[in-house]
Each structure stands twice: as structure tokens, then as C-alpha cells.
Amino acid sequence: MAEPSLEGPPAQRVKVTRVVSANINVRQRLAEIWRSRELLVYLVRTEIKVKYKNSFLGLLWSMLSPAMTLAVYTLVFGVLLKNGIPNFVIYLFSGLLLWNFFSTGVITATGVVVNNAGLVKKVSFPREILALAAIGSAGVFFFFQACVMAIFMVVLHMSPAWSLIWLLLVAMIPTLVFSCALGIFLASVNVYLRDTQHLIEVLVGAAWFWACPIVYSFNRSLQPHMLGAGKWREWLYFLNPMSPVVMTFQRVLYDRPGLVQLTTKVPPGAPRVTAQLLPGWPVITYIWADAFVLAVALALFYLAMVVFGRLAGNFAEEL
Amino acid sequence: MGTMAVDIQGVSKRFRLHQEKYTSLKEKLIHAGRVPYEDLWALRDVAFDVQEGETVGILGRNGSGKSTLLKCVCGVLQPTSGQVVVRGKLAGLLELGAGFQQDLTGRENIYLNGSMLGLSKREVDHLFDDIVEFAELGHFIDNQVKFYSSGMYVRLGFAVAVNVDPDVLVIDEVLAVGDERFQRKCMDRIKRFQKEGRTILFVSHSPDQVRAICDRAVVLSDGKMIGMGVPGEAVRIFREELMEAGDELAMGGGEEPPEAAAAAPGPESVTLGAAPVPEATDSSRPVRLTDVTAYYPGADQRRYLLLGETLVVRVGYQAQTAARDTIFAVEIRMHDGSLVFRTDTEILGMTVAAEVGPGALDFIYEGMPLFDGAYYVNVGIYGPGGILYDWREPACEFEMMNPGRATGMVALSVQPTVVPADRLAEDPALLGLEAHA
Description:
The complex is a heterodimer. Chain A is mainly α. Chain A is built from 13 helices and three strands; from the N terminus they run E-H-H-H-H-H-H-H-H-H-H-H-E-E-H-H. Chain B has ten helices and 18 strands. In chain B, strands 5-6-7-3-8-9 form a six-stranded mixed sheet, with helices on both faces. In chain B, strands 11, 13, 14, 15, 17 and 18 form a six-stranded mixed sheet that branches. The longest helix of chain B is centred in the middle third of the chain and has 23 residues, at about 230-255.
């Protein structure tokens, strides 16, 4: 045996003491999760394996399905409706990349405890890990899609703002924490209220998606309508924690912070139409906005852990 | 003084049973705040500890909270109040099978289970072959577990649990499945664990198993701990509790006929069970059974016979007309219906002449050699040529209790004798006779 702790009579090894009780605080549970990190890695792999187990194209679907979404939106908004955004695929993809991570993660996490009833009813492990594994597997798909995006950018001769590439991480971390918070919360609620799953699919998949400037540009499409009504509507819009992070991604990957010449057809001789697609914020504004999202996400994460801890005690009975 | 492996500290578990389960949002909103529910305390203030290296059994009827307690120990359920402290790595098999992910293969599930028990991939690599060999799965190990038969499922679960080198092993009734050979293999492994000084917590319906392998046992009833002690003592408490529960059920059905109590020969004996008196009169069947009762000494103090005590089955009858050659037959059967012993007055070389009116015949069984369990007695009356006059099944019941540690069906008299080295070549039969003399 490789591990010396496994050798010898059981009476002499170092033993971990575990307490099963209703009063385990969040810090202890986080420590427990940390101890089970190897399980988390394994569950992420499992999640991916199971998802494409019986499909012919397997893992390829993780790239095919966003590619199809991309194709449809580009066809509808870029070609048919002619929104005039140059290299619309890249604009769309830069937002969609992060959004897909969030929505896949949260939607999968919501059902994860119910779907793994067989494990939850028989084996003890920190149940939060299931939700985290769902987010983790979304992270793996995020990586694949990022590769696809890189290929797109090379093909279309687009380059990101190399000097700001670290901003991606600044946006990524709040998104990760926020996804985990929502995922953990929803996974536990879904055990008691199975509607949550369906509700979330609609809410996140449709409503929330359109509340983020992914398909459209906030500055071009929404801001002009908000000017008259005072700042509060804009504020309301940015209360959506996904907006700042998505816009950070667009700032780095689409990299056109100023006025952009649209591709809309104009009569010959007339000047081309220009528009502001991304806000002209300085970098520090992005950092502040993302930091704010992170603060909110951390608070929500703590709340989610508290709720999950309360509800987890009876999972085995409710499933 | 050893160290504590499992410490169960005042554990209570409440389940809130909603009369109807409203799981959807719509239903919950409609019925918000006025869903009728009742609280079910599956466990109430259960407290005991298990020392390192000890094997403790948990006995109890269905619904007594055994499984809930084990789930709390395993950490699958959280107790409503109180806590369980477990020292060391715990592997458990809860109610038929381990936690497997249906869509994964046996191989993948072994790794999954391993990592849930805190093993690294490398550690599972080392154990993998042992597990597959123990589970006897062969090439099925690469099939998805959803295609496994229930036997394969349980075998794999047990193989994982015993091969991951746990400090504490928790087993819930899993030994009831699998074929006999596999069961024996499991028992062997459990015994090896005991020798290695591992701790075992063991739930079983079978008092025999508890008696055979446990150092101590705990008896649960309606979520409360009603007894703890050496296996023999715990089994006795469990049986008494079982009998009381049986009486409660019987009382709901119908009351005992007054004759049964009146027929009791002395204050030391009470009736254990009596069948109602049939009122039919039929000239073709001149002798009919009235009440049949089982007696044994000291029955007012306890509800079972001890091994070796005397059982009396009193067969009451009523003869319409005088019947010269009446044959009385008595069968003793185990609760599952298998026949333990049957005889009748004809075989015993006895002729019974039934006079008109009531009469009774005692069947006296001296030194009952039967082991734990509930038994029932069937009684029949035959006329000459085997014409059936009357038959009652079951006519009465009794329970046996074995205060010792031996297990099985029948107590055989046995005397282990050391064979001297110089006499190894001799005929064992002769040697045995000599030792006996």
C-alpha cells in the first residue's frame, strides 16, 4: 500500500472524528467540503460522463449546442434583422460564453440533489458538493467553448484587448461565486419544491437571459430609452449581477469601447451610422462593478449555505 | 478501557408527516399554512456508545427506528436533536445496497464510492481487484449498474464497504440478500473484522445473527431504547416486546374465549393463545375441537418458554356421540410454516375413547429443545380409518427463548473433547463412547 496510514491494525491509525448533528456551522461545513475536494473533482468528471453517456456525439455536444445557438442568433439578429453590429458573432459569443457557464451551472445544480437521490439516500458526504460539481462541470464546458471562441476569433481576425485580459478573471470569480450561491440554494429548495427546476429553466433560460446585454447592446438599444426617466431605471438594470460581468467579458473580448461604425446600409455618399455598443467606462469602473457583484455573491453564498444546511438534514427522507 | 468509536448522544429524530404531500408550488400555495401534519418521533433520546473493536447489534420491530438510527450514525440523516460522534472512517450499507449512481458502470461506482469515503484514486486502484473479486462480478464490472441484478448490486455494495478498510462498519439488514454462499462469505469477513479490532454496528431482524456475532445489543421500540445488554438478554427483551405488540394486535381482533382462562390448571400458568369455540354440530363428525391452549410453568411472569422447559398443549374436545377410536394429532410448526414435529395418538400407540360431553387431552412435551422463535400448533381429530373429524390451524401459539449463545434450530447435546495426540489414529466413534462413559 502506498499510504502508510492504511497499514497496520486499525486501532493504531490516526482517526478523524466526525460529528453528525443538526448544529454544524457554515465554517465547519466549508472545511468538510474542502476535505472532500477530490470527490468534487471526481463528481465533475462523473457529471460530464453521465451527461453524454448514451449520445453518439458525446462531448462534442458541449460545443455543438452553443454553436447552434450562436448560428441561430446570428442569423436572426445579424442577417435578418440587420442590427448592424460588426462581427456580431464575436460580440454575441463573448457574452454568451460567460452566460452559458452561469445558466448551465445553475440549471444543472438545481436538479442535482434530486437526480442523485440514490447517492444522497445511502452515502454521507457534504451534499453541497453535488451542486458545486454541477457548477464545476459547467466550468469544463466553459473551457471547451472558450477554445471554440478562440478559433472563431482567429478565423475572423479579431483580437481581444490583450492588455486587459486579466479582467476576464476579475469577471469570472464573481460569476463563479454567484453561480455556486444560486446553485446550492436552488438545489436544496428543489428537494422540497420540485417546481423550482421548471421555474428556473424558464426564469434563467429565458427571462434572465434577456435582462443581460448579450444579444443586444445596452448602450445602443436600452440606454437611449432610459434617459428621460432618470437614472433609476439604469440602476435597476445594473442590479442584475450578471450585467456587469457579461459587459466585462465583452469589453475584453470584443474590445470596441468607443463609437463603432455599424454595417447598416446607408445611401451612397452619406456618412456611415456609428453607435456606442459598449460603455466607454474606464477599466476601474469595470473592476468596481465586478467587485460589487463579488460582494453580493459572497453574501448570497453564505445565505445559501445556511439555507442548505437547514434543509439538508432531511434530504434522505424527502427524496 | 477502550476508546469510543461511535458515541450516540441523546439522539432524537422527528419526521413531520404531512397527510398529503404537496410538493408542487401550486399545491403548497393553495394549502399554505394549513397542511395537516403529525409529528412522528422516529427516535427519542437514544443514547449509547460503541467501544472500539466492539460489535453491537440493534434489534427492533419494523418501524422501531433501527434504520433511522443507522442513517443518523452514517450521517445520511441529521438528528433533530442530539448528536452522533464517529471516530474513524465509517463505511456503511444502508437498507439493501450502497449508494450507486445508476448510469455509471460498476467500475466507476467503485471509484465514486471510494472518493466519497475519502480515498484517493490511487488508494482505490490498490483495492480495486479485491473488490471485484469479492463481489464476484467478473466482466460485469464494466456494465452500468442499472443493469445489475439485485444480488449483484448488493454484492458490489458489500464488497466496497468491507474492502475500503473502514474503522467502523455499519450494516443494515443486508445479509438477508444474496445466496447462502455469499452470505457465509460476508459473515466470514465480518468475523475477520472483529478479530482485527474493527467496530461493527449491525441491524438485524434475526436474533440468531445478533446472538452469533454481537458483543452487545440494543433494543429499540417506537424510537425509544428499551434495553441494552449481552445478546441473550437483549433478545429476551426484544421477544417480550414482540409478544406484547402481538397481543395488542390480537386484542383488536377478538377477545379470548372465557373457557380458555377457566381451563387454566393453576395460577402459575396462563394461556398463550386460544382459538374460538366452533358452534357447529354435525353427526358425521361426532368429536369436535373446543379450545386448544399451550401452557408452561411460570407463564404469568414471562411470555416465552426457556429452552429445556416443559410445554403442555391441552386439546379440549366435545363429543356428540361416544366415539371409540378417536385419534388426536398435534403438529408444531415454525412461524414460516415448516413442520418441526408431528405425531398423533395412533403413532404413540394410544387409543382414546371419547365419551359424550366435554373432554381434554394433554400433550406434554418435556424438555423443549427448540431455539428462539414463535411457533404455532395445529391440532386435528380423526376417526377410525383416518376420517377427519376436526382440524384447526393454528390452534395455539408459543414462543421459545434461548438464554445461551448457541444458535440454530434445535438444541443438541454436545460435549467437545480433546483427542490425545497418541490416540489420533483410533476410531472416533469408540473414543467418543469411551469419553462419554
